[in-house]
């Protein structure tokens, strides 16, 4: 391979403008070949003794595989393979350059000592600098004395680390420095008696970049994360955060990955919050069990000391729009058509005036769906037993149980699908705190359904290679009246209307009904790639039984658009045909240039009984103005009150070996309409590439606030 000085770097060093070291000719593995000759060029030479000892002068060049050794004067002992060199020394090999005044080097062992090192460059870790001396133990280990090192390009060092001693290991990709001083430009900013840092992207124990914030609620905030690389499949991060107006918050996160078990545990603790007047804490853990193909498990816990914790210290649980934090544990087994599971659930109230949902303590489920049919028929059965619980002892609660066998006749081809089915369902209760005459009501009902779909396709004349589909669908459901509408309801599922819900037969749903769902879907698909450029759907439910509260449901429409160059659009609109003033709109337009370039525009509106309950517009973006400059922004406004609920703007400037980010956010806190409270926060981050990772605030913040943005971690 011929070296080229014009090769451009890629990845995190793309802004360096040129490679730290162009590729060297030759294969490093050939250095160990005993038959590989050592080539020597020199202006003058002398030979003495046997085995011979050579003395070379005048632009001496020694070549061996990929390795080149240059000097003005070299003494070469062939018996020991030792070189003694002086003046204009340069050792060049794959991924390494050392320029020095004097050197003693053993070719066979690739070890030696260089003194007066004016420059060295190490491709592993993108390191360069100077040193009083370098001792090379072997091909992968070196010791530097009175060294300066940086990942910046020579002559343009944004930061420099000067150390009394540094040891580098390119095999483990780790570096260690003692009595080190970090300087930004020519300004010393930090001293440490010991520092461990990665050579490249390897995970390594040590401090991460600090994050600095300023907010009206918390004052000045400084967070300094410390990362512990426990093992290849275990790590932890400890982050002490100083809040000027509150105290010292301790954050800890532990992650693990085993063949059958993985998860994360994080917690925060602030003793005696100076403003709150009490201890503050939060815990968030998520564990996943995976044993073979049959067993699955999940444990999720989210708890805080108080409902204001997220507002004061960030959105660890992402519940700004939620009323409760959910904790749950589940274990399931599925094999040979059988399914069994047990799970439990609880809630912690976040909003003080929110209505508490029922918790499951526990729920048992059993299902059977044989892999073989009964001739043309398909059979399945499901059973469920759940204890619903609320903290309020006066609230009706108790056990709900179901059993439902089902028989269907699935008929499927490429052009159509038709599946009539009949089920029998028994539902019963064992109630507490109930004022009903019968605390153990039950009902058994037959359920008849029929689902029919048709698939039509034709080539689209306007676009070559694009086909349009037309997919009408009819779904019939009949549940006779057995006074089941008088039974208690512990369900907390959402009633939001979506197109798919028009055709979903809710598990163990026994509400009296006779209804027909009609829907129509059309798609524009690329015949070669299968990509769907457009999907539009519309549907409605018609209620046929006499005691139905209404004749038909809302109209439900969906639009999905996916065009080349990263443009996508989503539109969901639902409205009441009976002019009751109920409607809901959700729309979003997105341009996705790459994982870290995105622009979102959105609008959400909702009317209930003619009253507007939601009318919000939002914008978020992450755009690259130049290769080294990126801007972020977000805006969420209530269009009725003309009040900004949130807005933020940020900037990221990157160089070859550094990046800094700044974000300012204004967020409307929970407050009455007459007394709005806006919390302003400043966040600052500085990244020095090669001395650790990124601080843990700004990039996660941007990932959460800009839909589709992925800065990478």
Quickly list its features.
713 residues, mainly beta, 26-stranded antiparallel beta barrel, twelve-stranded antiparallel beta sheet, elongated
Structural class: mainly beta
Counted beta strands? 42
Model regions low in confidence, pLDDT < 50 over at least 5 residues: 1-6, 315-321
Biggest sheet: strands, sense, closure?
A: 26 strands, antiparallel, barrel
General form: elongated
Helix content percent band: under 10%
Describe the model.
This protein is mainly beta and 713 residues long. Helices cover 2% and strands 60% of the residues. It has two helices and 42 strands. The protein has a 26-stranded antiparallel barrel. Strands 1, 2, 3, 4, 5, 6, 7, 8, 9, 10, 11 and 12 form a twelve-stranded antiparallel beta sheet that branches.
Architecture blueprint of SSEs:
Blueprint: E1 39-41, E2 44-48, E3 53-64, E4 67-77, E5 82-93, E6 96-106, E7 111-122, E8 127-136, E9 141-150, E10 159-169, E11 174-184, E12 187-198, E13 206-207, E14 211-215, E15 219-223, E16 226-231, E17 234-243, E18 247-257, E19 261-270, E20 280-291, E21 295-304, H1 309-313, E22 324-335, E23 338-349, E24 359-368, E25 378-389, E26 397-408, E27 411-412, E28 416-432, E29 442-454, E30 456-459, E31 466-479, E32 513-526, E33 532-543, E34 555-563, E35 567-575, E36 583-594, E37 597-608, E38 611-626, E39 629-638, E40 643-654, E41 658-668, E42 678-688, H2 698-705
Antiparallel strand pairs: 1-3, 2-3, 3-4, 4-5, 5-6, 6-7, 7-8, 8-9, 9-10, 10-11, 11-12, 13-16, 14-15, 14-42, 15-17, 16-17, 17-18, 18-19, 19-20, 20-21, 21-22, 22-23, 23-24, 24-25, 25-26, 26-28, 27-28, 28-29, 29-31, 30-31, 31-32, 32-33, 33-34, 34-35, 35-36, 36-37, 37-38, 38-39, 39-40, 40-41, ...
């Amino acid at each position: 391979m011929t070296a080229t000085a014009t090769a451009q770097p890629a990845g995190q060093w793309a802004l360096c403008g040129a490679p730290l070291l162009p590729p060297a000719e030759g294969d490093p593995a050939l250095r160990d070949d005993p038959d590989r000759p050592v080539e020597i060029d020199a202006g003058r030479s002398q030979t003495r003794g046997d085995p011979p000892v050579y003395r070379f002068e005048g632009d001496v060049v020694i070549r061996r595989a990929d390795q080149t050794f240059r000097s003005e004067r070299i003494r070469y002992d062939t018996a020991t393979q030792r070189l003694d060199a002086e003046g204009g020394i340069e050792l060049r090999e794959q991924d390494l350059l050392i320029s020095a005044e004097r050197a003693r080097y053993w070719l066979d062992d690739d070890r030696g000592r260089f003194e007066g090192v004016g420059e060295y460059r190490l491709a592993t870790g993108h390191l360069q600098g100077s040193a009083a001396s370098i001792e090379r133990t072997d091909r992968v280990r070196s010791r530097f004395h009175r060294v300066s090192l940086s990942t910046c390009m020579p002559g343009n060092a944004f930061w420099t680390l000067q150390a009394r001693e540094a040891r580098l290991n390119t095999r483990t990709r780790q570096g260690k420095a003692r009595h080190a001083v970090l300087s930004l430009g020519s300004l010393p900013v930090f001293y440490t008696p010991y520092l461990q840092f990665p050579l490249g992207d390897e995970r390594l124990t040590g401090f991460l970049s600090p994050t600095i914030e300023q907010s009206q609620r918390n004052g000045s905030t400084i967070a300094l994360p410390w990362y512990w690389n426990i093992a290849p499949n275990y790590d932890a991060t400890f982050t002490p955060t100083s809040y000027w107006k509150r105290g010292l918050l301790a954050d800890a996160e532990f992650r693990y990955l085993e063949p059958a078990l993985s998860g994360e545990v994080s917690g925060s603790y602030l003793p005696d919050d100076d403003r709150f007047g009490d201890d503050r804490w939060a815990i968030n853990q998520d564990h996943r069990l995976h044993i073979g193909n049959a067993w699955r498990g999940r444990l999720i816990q989210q708890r805080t000391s108080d409902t204001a914790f997220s507002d004061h210290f960030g959105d660890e649980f992402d519940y700004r729009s939620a009323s409760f934090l959910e904790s749950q544990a589940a274990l399931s087994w599925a094999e040979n058509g059988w399914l069994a599971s047990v799970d439990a659930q609880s809630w912690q109230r976040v909003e003080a005036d929110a209505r508490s949902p029922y918790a499951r303590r526990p729920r048992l489920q059993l299902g059977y769906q044989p892999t073989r049919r009964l001739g043309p028929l398909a059979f399945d059965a499901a059973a469920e037993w759940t204890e619903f619980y609320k903290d309020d002892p006066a609230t009706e609660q108790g056990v709900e149980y179901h059993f439902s066998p089902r028989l269907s006749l699935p008929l499927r081809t490429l052009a159509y699908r038709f599946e009539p089915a009949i089920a029998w369902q028994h539902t019963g209760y064992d109630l507490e705190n109930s004022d009903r005459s019968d605390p153990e009501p039950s009902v058994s009902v037959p359920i008849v359904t029929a689902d029919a779909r048709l698939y039509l396709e034709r080539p689209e004349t306007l676009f070559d290679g694009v086909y349009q589909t037309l997919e009408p669908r009819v779904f019939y459901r009949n549940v006779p009246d057995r006074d089941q509408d008088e039974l208690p309801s512990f369900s907390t599922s959402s009633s939001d209307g979506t197109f798919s819900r028009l055709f979903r037969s809710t598990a163990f749903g026994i509400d009296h009904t006779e209804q027909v769902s009609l829907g129509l879907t059309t798609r524009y698909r690329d015949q070669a790639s299968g990509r769907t450029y457009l999907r539009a759907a519309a549907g409605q439910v018609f209620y046929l039984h006499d005691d139905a509260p209404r004749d038909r449901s809302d109209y439900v429409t969906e639009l999905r658009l996916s065009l080349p160059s990263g443009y996508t659009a989503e539109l969901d609109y639902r409205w009441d045909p009976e002019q009751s003033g109920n409607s809901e709109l959700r729309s979003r337009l997105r341009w996705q240039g790459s994982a870290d370039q995105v622009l979102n525009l959105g609008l959400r509106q909702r009317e209930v009984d003619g009253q507007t309950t939601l009318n919000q517009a939002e914008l978020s973006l992450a755009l690259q103005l130049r290769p080294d400059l990126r801007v972020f922004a977000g805006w969420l406004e209530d269009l009725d009150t003309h009040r900004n609920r949130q807005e933020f703007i940020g900037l990221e400037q990157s160089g070859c070996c550094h990046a800094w980010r700044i974000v300012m956010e204004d967020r409307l806190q929970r407050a009455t309409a007459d007394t709005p409270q806006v919390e302003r926060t400043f966040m600052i981050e500085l990244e020095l590439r090669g001395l650790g990772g990124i601080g843990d605030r700004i990039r996660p913040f941007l990932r959460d606030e800009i839909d589709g943005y992925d800065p990478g971690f």
